[in-house]
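Pipeline run #58 for the internal structure catalog. This entry was flagged by the ingest filter as a single-chain record with no existing model, so it goes straight to prediction. Upstream metadata was stripped on purpose; only the residue string is passed forward. Reviewer on rotation: M.T. Logging verbosity set to normal.
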Amino acid sequence: MYQPQDVTVLIVDDETNILQFLELGLQNEGYQVLTAEDGITAVNIAMEHHPHIAILDVMMPGIDGFEVCRMIKKVGNVAVIMLTAKDEVEDRVKGLTLGADDYMVKPFSFQELLARIQARIRNQFPQLMSEVLVGPFRIDDRRKEISFKNEVLALSTTEYELLKYMVINQGLVLSKSVILDQVWGYDFGGQDNIVEVYVRSIREKLSDRNHQLIRTIRGSGYRVDLP
């Protein structure tokens, strides 16, 4: 697992009691915590400190949480969890459209918030994880090893990066072009059939002869389905 002291969380809420409660709770868990009571301050803090996680209240004076979300998403890779006092579909859709990664309705469980923070870190900041457990896979990024059902796979560097990317995004359909950008890089000048070659090799090493783990979604790409 990751070390909480390596993770910076920005909390933005104009309700002082909620702000202090979350700040104290996350500090006790070991996180580095920054706070803001209004949107402008939040954006300035995000630009200066580049937090990993931003917990944004929707209703705030000045610019609201939606606008803060839109602005800080331009700053860099920050995972945004929106907080709202009402469970309105329109609000959720608006937040997600502007780039929010998750949504919670007040009042909420602090343990649930911790779980959602952990999920966002696993998904967006795998480099912070010494080990990531996803179903039967164990990804050790420091050793550059992936174990499947407790057996270390013999993977090349590119196979490791490809399988890690697909497992972390399990359940999502990943197109060849997206895989090429994320694994080989935007300046890769080769053919996209190289993805097929590497997927075939990884399937052999997983004994995935029937393509039950790494599924081919015809016309769309690949999807990892975990038991």
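catalog note: The domain at 4-125 is CATH 3.40.50.2300 (Rossmann fold).
catalog note: The mean pLDDT is 89.
status: ready for reviewer M.T.
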